[in-house]
Amino acid sequence: MAPTHDVLVIGGGAAGLMTALTAGQRGLRVLVVEHANKVGKKILMSGGGRCNFTNAGTTPANFLSANPHFCKSALARYTPAHFIDMVERHRIAYHEKELGQLFCDVSSKLIVTMLVDECLAAGVRIETGCSVQQVEQADGVFRLDTSLGRFAAPSLVVATGGLSIPSMGATGFGYELARQFGHDVLPTRAGLVPLTLSGKHQERLADLSGVSFPVEARCGKVRFRNFMLLTHRGVSGPSILQISSYWQPGDDLRLDLLPDRDALDWLEAQQRQRPDAELKTVLSDALPRRFAQRLCEVWLPNRPMKQFNAPQLKEAAALLADWPLVASGTEGYRTAEVTLGGVDTDGVSSSTMMSRHVPGLFFVGEVLDVTGWLGGYNFQWAWASGHAAGMAV
Ligand SMILES: Cc1cc2nc3c(=O)[nH]c(=O)nc-3n(C[C@H](O)[C@H](O)[C@H](O)COP(=O)(O)OP(=O)(O)OC[C@H]3O[C@@H](n4cnc5c(N)ncnc54)[C@H](O)[C@@H]3O)c2cc1C
Question: Any transmembrane segments, and where (predicted)?
Fold first, then answer.
């Protein structure tokens, strides 16, 4: 079959649209095939509807991958400043929330509109509600059998994303395609996801659902300082979502409940200043009252500060600085923001995103084994890898 296009992109999400507009701007005939009824659904729901579209401080250290070097080249060539340029050209107002996280002032819709407008201006054809039945390659041409007919091109870009939020169109199709063409797929699991507790660990905290406070979450050598939120089923909030990408069932997870102070120094000072106050009253000054109370019902002895001797105070301080959180699992793909693992980067060129096994086949975005932290990093990877492929197809 003769080529109908120069480039076929499967998946009209962040990375697919970025690849398409970049290739289209180079004068190539590009078709984006999206099986959902509209493109960019995850962009629309991202950042609470305001899309945290990049992180101004993005570095390769903000990503997890079996090969931590893989993301470097693409991230260096398409930086947050490049994407911000496009956002500003489209007069989309934005602001920095915290830690370099850039959000739209008004709505994520503006980012999708911007990407689609750039695609259309570059002559890209976008087909939604189009499912791919089969992919074949012969004589250097990829042929796609879809619900809208057959398409063929010398370049095929797999931009189907990860497994999180199946209700938004997520499928394992990209992984199947990768395997079909001889690629390894590393085991996948949910990342940036709330953790669940079970048994007594859940019962002790379940009625505190909604309580939130800053902690430092630690797993191995990794630590994140931010808010934790207690939920009906477990724990969430930015510090927990971040650490969830590093945690696996059975791993030791610890929380510093007083991340901004030295627990022992502080307890000693409290003992001097208010010897008759009970521990739970003292702790209520640093933690939400109900959580402080629960700590003193289950984990710590509640008595007037003057009744703690030095070793007992030290023990209490050690628990507050290194509180064990016994998680049983995660909420899974249903609520996860990202998928860890995916197409093994060993089989893919880090500068072009092209397969090392099959010339003309590209993988971009989350389908690859590259996963960012919470805070705009995942979109920056989608833009950067999409741009790299769009320049190379
Ligand atoms: C609730 C939520 C909030 C998020 N917020 C942020 C945030 O604020 N900042 C940030 O950086 N990251 C955020 N993320 C992560 C970010 O959305 C993803 O990392 C990013 O969208 C990945 O881009 P992608 O193009 O690789 O995949 P996606 O954006 O998921 O796009 C893949 C596309 O492929 C389509 N597709 C799948 N299978 C097929 C098939 N067989 N045929 C045709 N089409 C197919 C899908 O329908 C989808 O449109 C969030 C994720 C979630 C779930």
Answer: none
Asked whether 319 lines ligand 1 (CB < 6 A), one says no
C-alpha Rg value of the chain to the nearest Å = 24
For 51-92, the pLDDT digits (tens) are: 999 999 999 999 999 999 999 999 999 999 999 999 999 999
The fold of 195-330 is Elongation Factor Tu (Ef-tu); domain 3 (2.40.30)
Query: Which of the pair, 1 or 231, is modelled with greater confidence?
Result: 231
Quickly name the fold that domain 7-189+340-392 has.
Answer: FAD/NAD(P)-binding domain (3.50.50)
Point out the ligand 1 atom lying closest to the alpha carbon of residue 52: 8
pLDDT at 1 over 90: no
- Is the pTM value of this prediction over 0.85? yes
228 DSSP β-pair partners: 213
Residue 358, pLDDT > 90, answer yes
Percent of the chain with pLDDT over 90: 97
375 close to ligand 1 (CB < 6 Angstrom): no
Alpha-carbon distances of 100 from 32, 60, 203, 375, 377, rounded to whole Å: 31, 15, 37, 8, 10
Q: Which residues pair with 10 in a beta bridge?
A: 33, 158
Cα 311 to averaged position of ligand 1 atoms, centre (Å):
52
Asked if the domains 7-189+340-392 and 195-330 are classified in one and the same CATH topology, the answer is no
Residue 8 to residue 172: CA distance in whole angstroms: 18
